[in-house]
Structures are given as C-alpha cells and as structure tokens.
Amino acid sequence: QVTLKESGPALVKPTQTLTLTCTFSGVSLSTSGMRVSWIRQPPGKALEWLARIDWDDDKFYSTSLRTRLTISKDTSKNQVVLTMTDMDPVDTATYYCARNQPLGYFDYWGQGTLVTVSS
Amino acid sequence: DIQMTQSPSSLSASVGDRVTITCRASQSISTHLNWYQQKPGKAPKLLMYVASSLQSGVPSRFSGSGSGTDFTLTISSLQPEDFATYYCQQSYSTPFTFGQGTKLEI
Question: Is A52 within 8 Å of B96 when comparing Cβ atoms?
C-alpha cells in the first residue's frame, strides 16, 4: 500500500524559507522509475505543479518558481524535501506531494498541508 | 509552458444527467492527458490517465477521449458523489500543467 504524507510548518513569515518534507511508504525512491512531485493549491484556486525528483536524482521545476525551489531526496528515509525561498503571502496554499508515474500522472497523493504566509 | 484550458468553469447538472467537460491544450500533447476529481478539503483523485484509461476502482460511468489538443471527460449518468471539481493535467512535458478546474454543481 502506497502512502505519502506531507509535513512542515503551518505558518511562515514573509521572506522566510519554507521547508516541506514528504514521507512515503510502500515504495522506494531507489526503485527505477519512481518519481515524486510537489503540487500546491491556493485556497479556492487551481492546482499548480511545482517540482519533481526522480529515482536517478533528475530534477525538474516550475518555470515561474525555479529560482526559488529546491527539491531533494533522502532515499534511506523514504523522504523528499522541497524548499521554497523568499516566501510571500501569495504562496499561501495547501502543498501536496504525489507519486508521479512514468507516464506523468499522479496516482497517489498525500493529504496535503496548509501553509499560511503571514507576518 | 503548455497551457491547459477547461470549459466550462462551472456546470450545473442533476443526478442521472450525462455531462461532458472539455480540456484544450495550447499545443499537441498526443494522449498525455489525465483527469482528476477533487472534493472540498480532500486531495485530488486520479480518474483517467493517458486520455482514455480508467484508473483502477473508478466507476465505468467515467470515460475520457481525445488526442492532440482536444480532450473530453464524460460522466454518463451523474451520481450524487460525482459533484466535485474536475481538473485536467498534461503530462506530455515538464513543467506539468493543470487546467483551471470545472466545478460540477447540483
């Protein structure tokens, strides 16, 4: 059974750096073809893909956010970490991690974690 | 980036209705198009992948079609649990992109 769970701060101040962790089970990032993405959703708005990391450490980023994002993995802990610098109130959103199949669709999602950016 | 445009943005329907949601890509994406259902406060749920493949466990009243730039999601007979927001997503190339969503209301 594949499960993913996001963790991180619920509140960050403007200009701070956000660090989110996705902890998963039932799969391993050392398995060929395994990929994990981060996706966010501002309240009442659409989904936005942020970044992806692959089993071979390939990394892909959103065009508009690439300068602020870093994705990394700790295979031994079954974790994927996303950092986003220079947080702004417009970054307030629910952040999800999801398993990314080789054909690009997301078949397993975490429950999401709401991050509010406010002073 | 590939832009995804869904229509309509919202749709009112009744139980038993047949409904169709459309998704258009700004360039050809072959059949690399996926559909998700999202209910309030919940993570999205995969319904269809590569345009017309039904995800395991999803009722057969859901179907998808299309290729190139134009795609549709059809629900053949709406059930009460189908009232939700639906998103398309292209997986042809990164950065992956989603449509703006279609809210299906009673």
Answer: yes
**Strands of B1-106, DSSP E:** 4-7, 10-12, 19-25, 33-38, 45-49, 53-54, 62-67, 70-75, 85-90, 97-98, 102-105
Residues on chain B touching A46 (C-beta within 8 angstroms): 87, 98-101
Length of chain B: 106
- Interface contact A48-B98, CB threshold 8 A: yes
Characterize the bridge pairing of strands B102-105 and B85-90. Answer: antiparallel
pLDDT of residue B106: 85
For residue B54, the model assigns a pLDDT of 98
CB contact under 8 A, A110 and B95: no
> Among A26, A54, A30, A49, which Cα is nearest to A38's?
A49
Amino acid (one-letter) located at B25:
A
**Spans of chain B below 70 pLDDT:** none
